[in-house]
Write a structure and sequence with these properties.
208 residues, 6% helix, 6-stranded antiparallel sheet, Phosphatidylethanolamine-binding Protein, globular, mainly beta
Length: 208
């Protein structure tokens, strides 16, 4: 299988129009375009009954106490975890692309509900849901796509993995605000093939 993401080359920096966070005159801020990019795939094997799409960042610090704290630096050696930016399951087998903007076209304060997509399939809740919890302005359910916003004081350049899975089942049975772990459990043992495309992003001015 092959997958392609429009707007940047594999292994290169993701443009700010696809990001949640951006560098402004006043420093890093939630000021990116937050538009989901166009994604296309091909070469699904015989027997494919549906697809699952995952966009995740494996470089988010496990300890978030230093995130954005002036005078603190998050070293590259810090323990990291996966952070989901978009989770979609039950994409019909005849679908082979996601149009630009299908998951988001702007930053939505307080998030947006998960549920059915415009191109087929069902989207869960991304990890901004937990990250923004407790914030009186930004807290809420973050369904569908929300783009990169890595800590500006992080020494690590974050890598964003766009993964498409060809599955031997027509439906995972997932619904509601399912998360990355739920998706991975649901597709376990049902993956016929997969393909991956990677982009990078950082708000650390010294790393750009």
């Amino acid at each position: 299988m092959q997958i392609e993401v429009e707007g940047f080359a594999h292994g290169e920096q993701i443009p700010e129009r696809f990001a949640f966070g951006a560098l402004t005159e006043d420093g890093p801020a939630p000021a990116g375009g937050n538009t989901s990019p166009a994604i296309r795939w091909s070469g699904a094997p015989e027997g494919t009954q549906s697809f699952a799409l995952v966009i995740y960042d494996p470089h988010v610090p496990q300890d978030t106490s230093k995130v954005g704290v002036e005078g603190e630096t998050i070293g590259e050696e810090e323990a990291r975890r996966d952070f989901a930016h978009w989770l979609v399951v039950d994409i019909p087998a005849h679908v082979n692309e996601v149009p630009e903007g299908a998951g988001s076209t702007e930053i939505t304060v307080g998030g947006k509900p998960s549920g059915e997509t415009s191109f087929g399939g069902v989207s869960g809740a991304n990890d901004y849901t937990a990250f923004m919890a407790g914030d009186p302005q930004m807290g809420g359910t973050y369904g569908h796509y929300d783009g990169p916003f890595p800590p500006p004081n992080d020494e690590a350049v974050h890598h964003y993995h766009f993964v498409i899975y060809a599955l031997d089942i027509p439906s995972t049975g997932l619904s509601g605000d399912f998360g990355l772990d739920d998706l991975r459990k649901a597709i376990d043992g049902h993956v016929l093939a997969e393909a991956e495309y990677v982009g990078t992003y950082t708000l650390n001015a010294d790393k750009r």
